[in-house]
Amino acid sequence: MFKASVQRQVRLGNVARQFSTVSLTRTAGSKPLAVLRQTASQSALWRLAPRHAIFRLYSAESAAAQANRRAEFAPVASSPVSRFSELDKLGVHERLIEALTKGMGYDAMTEVQSMAINPALKGTDMVAQAKTGTGKTLAFLVPLFQRVLMDQPNLADRWAVRRSSSQDIRAIILSPTRELAEQIGVEARKLARSTGIVVQTAVGGTRKREALQKMWHEGCDVLVATPGRLNDLLSDPHARVAAPNLRAFVLDEADRMLDVGFADEIRSIQEALPDRKAVERQTLLFSATIPRDVVHLAKSMVRPDNFEFVQTIKADDEPTHERVPQHLVVVNGLENVFPTIIEIAQKAKLAEDSGLPFKAIVFFSTTASVQFATQVFRKTPSLSRRSGIETFEIHSRLTQATRTRSADYFRQAKSAVLFSSDVTARGMDFPNVTDVIQVGLPPDRDQYIHRIGRTGRAGSSGKGWLILTKEEVPEARNRLPGLPIKPNDTLKAAKHVLGENSTFDDVARYFSEVRDAYATVRKSDFRAVYLATLGQKFGRHFQADDVISMLNKWCLDGLGWTEVPAIPPKIAQQRALSRVPGVRIGYDDEDDEPVSRGFGERSGFGERSGFGNRSGYGNRSGFGDRSGFGNRSGFGDRSGGDRSGSRSMFGQNNQRGRTGNRGRGGSNRNSFEDRFSSRADGRSQAPKRASF
């Protein structure tokens, strides 16, 4: 018995010696992350350690003591680091620190980065509540890259001989939109520049074959992807994309992924990844809000006994939508919308000496409206390139390459206007945006808030504008309760009545510019806007007959048409428009004549729902983006989805019991969810009354 025990001790001692000579690869999943050079020092420590200490490793007590002794030699920061140059105290590899400080020029961390990086480098799973525009991309890239280097030390050498493979991906970052994924990919490649780590992106809206050939040729260590495309790649055996040794998994903007219906894809992706019991990985989940469905998602993905909840939003931290001044501009009619936007831009240009150059995002709720507005404004002298203000557009009908190019140009522009659908409402980082202009009814309160969040980022100043017709105001009060929106009557173009002489020369010029520009737009483009408008979700205080009346008045009196656009019978039936007064059922001949036949003195332009409420309301009735009748939701590569249809995938009602908490008992549920008790979720506390 004693002899057998001694032999066992010797065997364990040999194992311990062997363990000391290998890299930290085998412990990266469960041990705190440390610099690669620590391996050598630990090996020396093991060689110098007393033999009896090694022999006693089989004992639970001595193993724990030995772990404590090893921890003493691990880099430990006495307090959370706040500068990237200090990351060596947390064991971050010098190549990454060099890339951050010298290559990317970063010095001090943002508060979010410090709060998230410090615990994430311990190797535990993490759920972090963090607002966009606070530097959270680096907050998950740094620990993710460190983990990859710990898993594969040879990647620290950029010129090391190693063949990366698309079938051995070590880290995956999941993003809800193409634009955000591309943005993350750019930052990741900068961080990887001084290492051998290969970063690839896989997003919808791009040619799948070309992306695969790039991955096959170059390999892939870190993959940044959208849920739809990643699920496609992992489920396609011909794609030759796999992650059998996945060490890190990041979900960015988790609440948005669920909002736009990606729950099914996320579940399928989880099933395609290796079992965490066989291959241990770190999961980092970031979300701006922590509603119940995000809690259920987190419960299905993180280790309940080994995760940290990082609350980067302070209890007294004033949200952007409460801090940024917001103005409600009520216009006389649709014909006043575009001149009002020009007036906002011109007044901001005059005030540039006392602040940042005018840089605005103008949100419309349909893709047709974005296209239409872009065509018009590019012909107006006040917003042309010669005026010093550049114009760009982003919406789901553009190719991914074009959308990426527009986003990059807008970021780099000093003074510019971006016309956009809701694909940029969340996650996208555009610096120095001074104004966010929302035209027409927002889909709901949440989307209004997300749009406003494009300005006033990282503590900077900004303004919000909401342009509505008087018919839309009652419904806006119903949709936007408790927001600090204040009426603004200072814009003269908003109240101007066409046909009357204006006492303000500038106002007359704004209307004249739009009239001339609008006359160049094709009639087919206006028809698309007209149909997209009628594909919106109406409301208790805003009905179809209101919209028809507004549009028809605009067409007949403003544009000089002899009849309003026809609505195909099937669409009229689907949208219950057949008996609405003023609706013309039938078909129009397609042509490319200018939309205006002289632009009579009532001259309308703009189009409410073109600036109205898209909100994916059309996708159930044939008004989707693909049919030309509006943007099916405009949320990235999936273009929308049923927000509520898949939420139970991660909730209590999941009958298969894979990801929910069914059958686990109330006490276990609370033990997990209580960790999020301090979360700040404004959606669950929406006030009942509007401020305007």
UniProtKB/TrEMBL annotation:
EC number: 3.6.4.13
Biased composition annotated in UniProt, kind: Low complexity: 646-658
Motif (Q motif): 85-114
Annotated Helicase C-terminal domain residues: 343-499
Transmembrane segments: none
Catalytic activity from the UniProt record: ATP + H2O = ADP + phosphate + H(+)
Localisation per UniProt entry: Nucleus, Nucleolus
GO molecular function: ATP binding; hydrolase activity; RNA binding; RNA helicase activity
One GO process term, biological-process aspect: rRNA processing
Location of region: Disordered: 584-692
InterPro entries reported for this sequence: DEAD/DEAH_box_helicase_dom, Helicase_ATP-bd, Helicase_C-like, P-loop_NTPase, RNA-helicase_DEAD-box_CS, RNA_helicase_DEAD_Q_motif
Top-level taxonomic group: Eukaryota
Domain DEAD-box RNA helicase Q: 85-114
Biased composition (Basic and acidic residues): 671-682
GO cellular component terms listed in the entry, alphabetical order: nucleolus
Biased composition (Gly residues): 601-633
Keywords: ATP-binding, Helicase, Hydrolase, Nucleotide-binding, RNA-binding, rRNA processing
The Helicase ATP-binding domain, residue ranges: 117-308
Catalytic class of the enzyme: hydrolase
PANTHER family, per the entry: RNA HELICASE (PTHR24031)
Task of the protein: RNA helicase.
The family this protein is said to belong to: Belongs to the DEAD box helicase family.
Domain comment as written in the entry: The Q motif is unique to and characteristic of the DEAD box family of RNA helicases and controls ATP binding and hydrolysis.
Protein name as annotated: ATP-dependent RNA helicase
